[in-house]
Specification:
The structure holds three protein chains of three kinds. Chain A is built from ten helices and ten strands. Chain A is globular. Chain A starts with a strand and ends in a 7-residue tail after the last helix. Chain C has a domain of about 200 residues. Chain C is built from eleven helices and two strands. Chain C is globular.
Chain lengths: ~260, ~350, ~300
C-alpha cells in the first residue's frame, strides 16, 4: 500500500458567508495521479490554495509526507517539495523561457545577496548547474528551440508547457495542476495526458483539478468529486463515474 | 567567459571618465568637475533606487530620507565637539579605539570629534537599521499605499532635521571636514582636491554598478525580477518575496546613505533641502527616464540631469522641468526613454533585463 | 487650560479639520470614480484662493469667488482630459505618479504667475480683527464661514450622489466601470466630472480658509498630505468617515500645538499616516478584508 504523500484533514475555509471548503478530507497516495473534479464553484481551486499556502484554512490540517504544513506560506510549502501551476498562466512575461525555468530552481539553490553581488566563484558554479539543469528540462519537454525567446512571445500551448517546465525545475514530490487543459485543443490535451503520465513515471505525485472529463478518465488513478465545498465521492474513476450522487450533480452528463 | 560581457560598459565608462578629466584639465575647465562629482554622488541614490523600483518593483517616494540619514549622521558626528565630554568613559573609549580626531575648525577652536571612517560606518549602520524598521511594515503594503508610506517616511526625516537643534534646523550642518580615505586621498570640495575627488567619486559609482550588475545577473537578481513580473508565481516557486523585497529596500537605502555621506564631506555641509519631497521625486524621475530596470540608463540620466540642474541650466524652472519629464515619461514611454529610442548597437552591449 | 482657551483650541481644531475633511472628500470622489489618488488635490485649494484674490481687485468678493471656482473647475476638467485620460493603459501607480508631476507643475505655474509672496483673501464678513465671543473665547466670524461652507459641501454632496441621476451614475462607474458603460453611462465623462467636482469644492474650500491661514503658492502639498491622511484614516472612499477623521486630526493638531513646540504639529499628521498605513490601511471605518490592500 503506497504511503500517503498528501493528506488533508477536515479542511474548512470561509469567504465571508460562503463556506468554500467544507470538511474536506482527501488522501493522495505516492506515485499516483489524483483528479479533483466538480462543478464551478465547488471549491477546487480554494482547496489547491489551501494546500499550497496561498490561503489559510479556518480549520483542519494539511499533512505532507507525514508532516503538518497547514498555514505555511507559499514559499515554504514550495521548498518542502510541492509545486503548482495556475489556472491562468503566470509566466514571467519579459524574461526568457530559460530564465523562467531557472527561477524554478530557486528552492533547490542557495547563493544569496552577498555572493551574488560579489560574483563569487561559488555563484559561477551554482549558476552553471542551474543553467544545465534548466536546459535539460527544456529538452525533455521539447522546448529547447525557445530557450532564449521572451516567454510572452510563445504561443499559448507552449506557454503552458513552460509553466510545467518551471514547476518541474523545482524537482517536486507533489505537483498541483490547476486546470492544465484549459484552452488546449484535442491534440494538445492528448499530449498533456502523455506528459502528466510521464511526470508521474518520474516519481512525481500529481493532483489535478480538471473539467475535461476525457483527460481525467484517461490519466487519473483516483478521483475526488467536490460540490459546493463538500467532498461527494472519492475513489477509482469507474466507481466514481457510477456514483449516483456524482451523476446527479452532473445531471448524468459525463462529458464536461 | 561570456559573463564578462556585462563588464564591458564599466570599462567603457571608466575610459570615458579618464578622457573627460584629461580634456577638462587641458582646457582649463576643471570647475565642471565639481558638478560632475556631485552628480556622481547623487547617482549612487539612483542606482539603489533602480534596483528597488525596476527590479524588485517597489516604489519609494522617500529615498531622499536615506540620503539625509547618511549625510546628517556623518555631518553631526564629524562636527560635534566632544571636548566638553572628553573625560567621560564613552568618549575615552572611543579615543583609545582611535575613532576620534583632534583638529581645529575654521575659527581656530580645538575640536574633538569623530573621524570620517567611524562616522561613515555609523551612518551606514543607522541607515540599515532604519531601513529595516521602516521596511518591515511598509514592504507589506501594496502599490500606492507603499508609495504613501515612503512619502511619509521622507517627510518625517525632513521634519526631524528641520526641527532638531543638533541638525542645525533650517541652516543644516556646515564645516564638515573632508573625508580622508587614507593619507593622501580624500574627498574634498576645494579646488586642489578636485581631480582626486572626481576619481574617488567615479570609483565608488563604478564599484556600485559592478555590485548591482552582479546582483541582477545572479540567482537573487532573477528572483527579484520574477517578483516584479508575477509575485504570486514567484512565491509559489519558493521565492521568499517578503524577505527579498525587504533586503533590496535595505540595500537601496545603503546606496543612498553612502551617496549622502560622500556628498556631505565633499560640500562640507548638508541642509534640509536635501530631504524634500521634490528631491525624492527627482530620483524617481531619473530612474523612470533611464528605464525602470536599466541600470546604465539610470546612471547616465542621473549624471546628465543632475549636472544640468546643478549648472543652473533649467533656471528657476528646475522643478517644473523634472515634473514635465516625469509626466511625459509616464504617459508616453513608461519603459524609459532609452528603450524607446532603441539604440540598437549600444543596447546590445548593455546588460538588458533578459540576460540569463 | 481654562474654558475659553479650550474653546479657542477647539474652534481652531475643527476649522482646520473641516478643511482637511474637504480635501479628503476631494480625494475620495476621484478615488471612487477612478481608483487613483490625486496628489494635485491640494493645489486646487491654492489655485482657487489665488484666483479669487486676484479677481477681487476687479470685481466684488462673491463674484470673484464664484469666478475662481468656475475657472478652477475647468482647470480640473482639463487636467483630466489632457493627462489622465491619455494614460488609459497605465497602471494605477503610474497614474498616481503622474498626479505628483501635475501637482508640481501646478505649483510651479502658480509660482511663476503669481509669486512666492504670502497673500490672503478678504474676510467674507468683517475684518481681520472682528470677533465673536463664544463661551468666553474670541472667534473670528470667518471661522463660522469655514464651518458653514464645509457643512454645505458635505450636506450638498450626499443627496447629489444618492438621489441625482448623475451622482448615481458616478457611483455606478466606481463600482463597476464596464457594467456602467453597458448601461449607457459615459464613463469617460464621469471621470472628468469627478475631477471637476473635486476641483470645485477644493477651490471653494481654498477661498473660505484663505483669510484664516493665508495662502502661499506651495501650501498645496502639505494640505494634500494631510487630506490624504484623513481620507485613509476614515477609509479611502468613505466621505462621511473622512469628515469625522478630519475633525479629529484638526483637534489633535490644535491641542498638540497648545502643549508642544509648533514644529511637532506637522509631525502629528505624518505619524498618524504611517501608523494607519501600517496597522490598519483600510482605515478606522473601512472594511477589513479589502484584499487589494496587502501584498503577499
Amino acid at each position: 500500500m503506497p504511503e500517503a504523500m498528501l493528506e488533508t484533514k477536515k479542511l474548512h475555509r470561509f469567504f465571508g458567508g460562503l463556506h468554500a471548503v467544507n470538511d474536506v478530507s482527501i488522501t493522495v497516495s505516492q506515485g499516483t495521479i489524483k483528479g479533483v473534479i466538480g462543478p464551478n464553484g465547488a471549491g477546487k481551486t480554494t482547496l489547491f490554495n489551501l494546500i499550497a499556502g496561498t490561503v489559510t484554512p479556518h480549520d483542519g490540517d494539511v499533512i505532507f509526507r507525514g508532516k503538518k504544513i497547514t498555514a505555511l506560506k507559499p514559499h515554504a510549502v514550495a521548498s518542502r517539495g510541492i509545486a503548482r501551476t495556475f489556472q491562468t498562466t503566470k509566466l514571467f512575461a519579459h524574461m526568457t523561457v530559460l530564465e523562467n525555468v531557472m527561477v524554478g530552481r530557486h528552492s533547490r539553490t542557495k547563493c544569496g545577496f552577498i555572493s551574488g553581488m560579489l560574483n563569487l566563484p561559488r555563484t559561477w558554479h551554482e549558476d552553471k548547474q542551474i543553467k544545465a539543469k534548466s536546459l535539460e528540462i527544456l529538452k525533455d519537454l521539447g522546448l529547447s528551440e525557445h530557450a532564449f525567446e521572451k516567454a510572452s512571445n510563445l504561443p499559448f500551448g507552449r506557454q503552458r508547457l513552460v509553466e510545467f517546465a518551471r514547476a518541474l525545475a523545482m524537482e517536486p514530490q507533489l505537483l498541483l495542476l490547476d486546470e492544465p487543459a484549459a484552452g488546449l485543443n484535442i491534440y494538445e490535451t492528448k499530449e498533456l495526458a502523455r506528459l502528466i503520465k510521464w511526470i508521474r513515471d518520474r516519481g512525481v505525485t500529481c493532483l489535478v483539478v480538471e473539467h475535461d472529463m476525457s483527460l481525467v478518465m484517461a490519466i487519473c488513478d483516483e478521483i475526488v468529486v467536490l460540490d459546493q465545498g463538500r467532498k461527494i465521492a472519492e475513489g477509482p474513476p469507474r466507481a466514481v463515474q457510477r456514483n449516483p450522487e456524482v451523476i446527479r450533480i452532473y445531471l448524468g452528463d459525463n462529458d464536461a | 567567459m561570456t559573463q564578462f560581457r556585462r563588464y564591458i560598459p564599466v570599462i567603457a565608462v571608466a575610459i570615458a571618465v579618464i578622457i573627460l578629466q584629461v580634456v577638462l584639465s587641458k582646457t582649463g575647465s576643471t570647475y565642471y568637475m565639481t558638478q560632475i562629482t556631485m552628480s556622481a554622488f547623487y547617482a549612487l541614490v539612483v542606482i539603489g533606487l533602480c534596483l528597488l523600483m525596476g527590479y524588485a518593483g517597489q516604489v519609494s517616494l522617500g529615498h531622499a530620507g536615506f540620503f539625509a540619514i547618511g549625510g546628517y549622521t556623518a555631518a553631526v558626528l564629524t562636527t560635534f565637539n566632544l571636548t566638553a565630554y572628553s573625560n567621560t568613559p564613552v568618549v575615552s573609549l572611543c579615543r583609545s579605539l582611535g575613532l576620534l580626531v583632534q583638529r581645529q575648525d575654521i575659527y581656530g577652536t580645538d575640536i574633538l570629534a569623530f573621524s570620517a571612517w567611524p562616522a561613515f560606518a555609523a551612518a551606514i549602520l543607522l541607515a540599515i537599521i532604519i531601513a529595516f524598521l521602516i521596511g518591515l511594515p511598509v514592504i507589506r503594503l501594496k502599490g500606492h499605499y507603499m508609495a504613501m508610506a515612503t512619502l511619509g517616511f521622507g517627510l518625517i526625516i525632513y521634519r526631524i532635521v528641520l526641527g532638531g537643534r543638533i541638525f542645525g534646523q533650517a541652516d543644516g550642518v556646515s564645516n564638515v571636514p573632508p573625508f580622508r580615505i587614507i593619507d593622501g586621498l580624500e574627498v574634498n570640495g576645494r579646488a586642489a582636491f578636485r581631480i582626486e575627488s572626481y576619481y574617488i567619486a567615479w570609483f565608488v559609482v563604478l564599484a556600485a554598478m559592478v555590485l548591482a550588475i552582479n546582483l541582477v545577473h545572479s540567482r537573487v537578481g532573477r528572483a527579484l525580477r520574477s517578483i516584479h513580473e508575477n509575485e504570486e508565481a514567484a512565491h509559489s516557486l519558493g521565492v521568499n518575496t517578503y524577505r527579498y523585497k525587504l533586503l533590496v529596500f535595505i540595500l537601496s537605502a545603503v546606496f543612498a546613505a553612502i551617496g549622502g555621506v560622500l556628498l556631505t564631506h565633499y560640500n562640507g555641509s548638508i541642509g534640509p533641502s536635501e530631504v524634500t519631497v521634490m528631491k525624492s521625486v527627482r530620483y524617481l524621475v531619473i530612474v523612470a527616464v533611464g528605464g525602470m530596470a536599466n541600470l546604465w540608463g539610470a546612471l547616465f540620466m542621473g549624471v546628465l540631469l543632475n549636472f544640468l540642474s546643478l549648472r543652473g541650466v533649467f533656471g528657476s524652472y528646475d522643478d517644473a522641468v523634472f515634473a514635465v519629464i516625469l509626466i511625459a515619461i509616464m504617459l508616453f514611454a513608461p519603459q524609459g526613454l532609452l528603450r524607446m529610442l532603441n539604440i540598437r548597437k549600444i543596447s546590445s552591449l548593455l546588460p538588458r533585463r533578459s540576460n540569463a | 487650560m481654562n474654558l475659553p482657551q479650550i474653546v479657542q483650541y477647539c474652534f481652531a481644531g475643527i476649522t482646520v479639520g473641516s478643511i482637511y475633511a474637504i480635501v479628503a472628500i476631494g480625494f475620495n470622489i476621484i478615488y471612487n470614480a477612478t481608483g487613483i489618488i490625486n496628489f494635485a488635490q491640494g493645489e486646487f485649494l491654492i489655485l482657487g484662493a489665488m484666483l479669487a484674490i486676484t479677481l477681487n481687485h476687479f470685481v466684488a468678493l462673491p463674484i470673484a469667488i464664484a469666478l475662481s471656482v468656475v475657472i478652477t473647475t475647468i482647470v480640473g476638467g482639463l487636467i483630466e482630459i489632457v493627462f489622465i485620460r491619455r494614460a488609459r493603459n497605465a497602471s494605477v501607480l503610474s497614474l498616481i505618479v503622474i498626479t505628483i508631476g501635475i501637482s508640481i507643475l501646478m505649483r510651479e505655474a502658480m509660482l511663476h504667475i503669481w509669486d512666492e509672496k504670502v497673500r490672503s483673501l478678504a474676510y467674507f464678513t468683517g475684518t481681520g480683527v472682528s470677533s465673536i465671543t463664544i463661551l468666553g473665547a474670541h472667534i473670528s466670524p470667518q471661522v463660522l464661514w469655514v464651518l458653514g461652507v464645509s457643512a454645505v459641501i458635505v450636506i450638498g454632496l450626499t443627496p447629489f450622489f444618492r438621489y441625482t441621476l448623475t451622482g448615481r451614475a458616478m457611483r455606478a462607474c466606481a463600482d463597476d466601470r464596464m457594467a456602467a458603460r453597458l448601461c449607457g453611462i459615459n464613463d469617460k465623462w464621469m471621470v472628468t466630472l469627478s475631477f471637476m467636482i473635486s476641483a470645485a469644492i477644493g477651490a471653494l474650500a481654498g477661498c473660505v480658509i484663505s483669510p484664516v491661514t493665508q495662502t502661499q503658492y506651495d501650501m498645496g502639498a502639505p494640505l494634500a498630505i494631510k487630506g490624504f491622511t484623513v481620507a485613509i484614516v476614515g477609509g479611502l472612499g468613505n466621505s462621511m468617515a473622512a469628515v469625522v477623521a478630519g475633525l479629529m486630526l484638526g483637534l489633535v493638531e490644535a491641542f498638540t500645538m497648545s502643549q508642544f513646540d509648533v514644529a511637532y504639529k506637522e509631525a502629528v499628521s505624518i505619524v498618524i499616516l504611517l501608523l494607519i498605513l501600517v496597522l490598519r490601511p483600510s482605515g478606522l471605518f473601512g472594511k477589513r478584508e479589502i484584499a487589494a490592500m496587502r501584498s503577499l
